[in-house]
Design a protein that fits this description.
By secondary structure, this protein is an alpha+beta fold. 22% of the residues lie in helices and 25% in strands.
């Protein structure tokens, strides 16, 4: 495999190891240890009891993973009195997803296999998460997709939020294989199996891990696929890299119960998707400081550093200036924040023509009154995306989704550090230390058109990728074999997925399916319908040569 990946036409070295280490023995009835306190108060104890089976560690078998004790993590900081020291040994936090990724990237060839009844497509029943920021009732795409998977027997609560649909093996949103039986059963009686249990029956057949033909819980999907229906802004947050994730899990296990990283990619499904991501260019921040004196007053003497940097173009890296400003902002006195927010809101209320930034600030103020995160759009990039637009969020980058419907694909993790616009735990100190403080406008891409039907979205990491397949009425298209497993979600239209003589699976809006590694299928759209649109998530190791990725 080519050890280099392309980002903005610049060749950068991939950090993914090509070894296939064996993990500490995990639990038998779950996946890769990612529990989260948002869903289960006892999650940490569950993972401790199931993952941390005492055994003597042979460090030689992890030769591709160095002992990083007492070395700064990748969230570097030149200030000697303010950095995060990584003391945890990564060999103790390896998980099944990481093992599978190592196995996949180490393969030197790809080969298609015959489809049989054992490895053919399997229908999935997915989990809907009802977080408060989700759209309500049937206005939520998530709710409609979930209802479609139950053949009309799922009752949508019109007053309840439906925020996310999870498709994958994460233990807090596990998808289930729907088992086919000779006798037709009712919705309540149909038999299901956890997807993780199914794929771990034969990792070679289902996950593409060569040589692992017997049951093994050492391997899992490398990605998690989601649909989001966003009504209210999500928290200002960032996801730590692998080293910091492991350190947080070790130091603060009751707050950070997930040792894995979580880079992610969002693809807009509607024309109204909005988000904040990354720090604005310094000139933009300085300009906004003049436009919003309430924020400028809040950050105190930090304003002089920013204005001087812009005026004199002092230095080439504004990281320390931004970091100082962000810390002052995030730790400002609550009464000071409250007073300045009230002044800002009153001033904007009297303004005749509000700018887009003004309107966003007022919107956040209505959703989270008094929260310091209301000032965030002044320093973060404010993005508006149309259907098909996508952007990538790397480790240690601040972001917050604002509204709209999206597809989201990520590494198999639920690890997050929050600092604003949320009633949940805020860890301002960690967030301030971990951010990269890059000043740039995020790259928006519409993907790479592979052929007349398929658009490929490729991030600069191996954990995941995404395809959007659109087939016209009456036409067909071959879903090519890839070395990793994949999951499918029908977004629009109707038709069938045909796998030789083995099966012909009807598909329509909301239908989700699991596709074993190295298998193929023919997508056939109904000739009297609107066509067929399917989203496919998979590991980003399926290309023999990587195209230039725009991220």
């Amino acid at each position: 495999m080519n050890p280099f990946i392309m980002s903005n036409n610049i060749q950068v070295q991939s950090n993914v190891t090509t070894s296939s280490p064996k993990m500490t023995k995990p639990h038998r009835d779950g996946t890769n240890g990612q529990y989260n306190d948002e869903y289960d108060e006892n999650a940490f104890e569950k993972m401790r009891s199931k993952h941390c089976v005492p055994r003597k560690i042979n460090y030689d078998e992890w030769e591709a993973t160095p002992n990083i004790a007492n070395l700064p993590s990748s969230c570097d900081d030149e200030m000697f009195d303010d950095y995060i020291v990584t003391t945890v040994d990564l060999t103790m936090v390896r998980n099944a997803a990481a093992n599978a990724l190592s196995a996949l990237v180490s393969k030197t060839y790809d080969s298609s296999v015959d489809v049989t009844e054992d490895n053919c497509l399997k229908r999935l029943e997915c989990t809907a998460q009802q977080y408060d920021w989700g759209k309500r009732g049937s206005s939520a795409l998530v709710a409609r997709l979930k209802a479609a998977q139950h053949d009309g027997n799922f009752v949508i609560d019109e007053k309840a939020p439906y925020a996310e649909l999870w498709i994958g093996t994460h233990p807090n949103g596990m998808s289930h294989i729907i088992l086919e039986s000779e006798e037709k059963s009712s919705e309540d009686e149909r038999q299901c199996m956890p997807l993780v249990e199914y794929v771990q029956q034969n990792p070679e057949m289902h996950l593409g891990v060569v040589g692992k033909v017997g049951p093994s819980d050492d391997y899992d999907l490398t990605f998690l696929f989601k649909v989001l229906s966003i009504e209210k802004v999500l928290s200002i947050q960032a996801h730590p890299d692998k080293q910091l994730a492991a350190q947080l899990f070790t130091d603060k296990p009751h707050a950070y119960k997930d040792p894995n990283h979580k880079p992610e990619m969002a693809v807009a499904l509607t024309d109204d998707f909005e988000a904040m991501c990354g720090f604005r260019p310094m000139l933009d921040i300085a300009s906004n400081m003049l436009e919003y004196p309430e924020f400028t007053d809040l950050i105190g003497n930090s304003r002089h550093d920013i204005l001087e940097f812009v005026a004199n173009k002092r230095g080439v890296n504004p990281k320390q200036i931004l970091k100082k400003m962000f810390r002052v902002y995030m730790t400002a006195d609550a009464e000071h924040v409250k007073t300045n927010l009230e002044n800002l809101k009153n001033r904007l209320a009297e303004k005749d023509n509000l700018s887009d930034l003004d309107k966003l600030i007022m919107k956040l103020s209505d959703q989270f009154p008094g929260d310091p995160g209301i000032f965030a759009p002044i320093i973060f990039n404010y993005m508006k995306l149309k259907t098909g637009d996508a952007f990538y969020i790397g480790a240690n980058e601040p972001h917050a989704y604002i509204q709209g419907d999206i597809l989201e694909c990520m590494a198999c993790s639920d690890n997050v550090v929050r600092a604003g616009l949320t009633p949940k735990l805020k860890d301002v100190d960690t967030l301030v230390k971990m951010l990269t403080y890059k000043c740039s406008i995020p790259t928006i891409t519409r993907g790479l058109r592979k052929d007349h039907c398929c658009t490929l979205y490729v991030p600069p990491i191996e954990d995941f990728a995404m395809e959007i397949i659109e087939v016209r009425p009456g036409n067909s298209y071959e879903l090519h074999d890839v070395r990793s497993p994949s999951v499918l979600l029908t977004l629009d239209g109707s038709g069938v997925l045909k796998q030789s003589w083995v099966q012909t699976m009807p598909v329509s809006f909301g239908m989700a399916a699991f596709m074993s590694a190295n298998t193929t299928a023919i997508v056939i759209a109904d000739k009297n319908g609107p066509g067929l649109k399917i989203a496919r998530a998979l590991s980003n190791v399926h290309l023999n040569s990587r195209p230039n990725t725009p991220f």
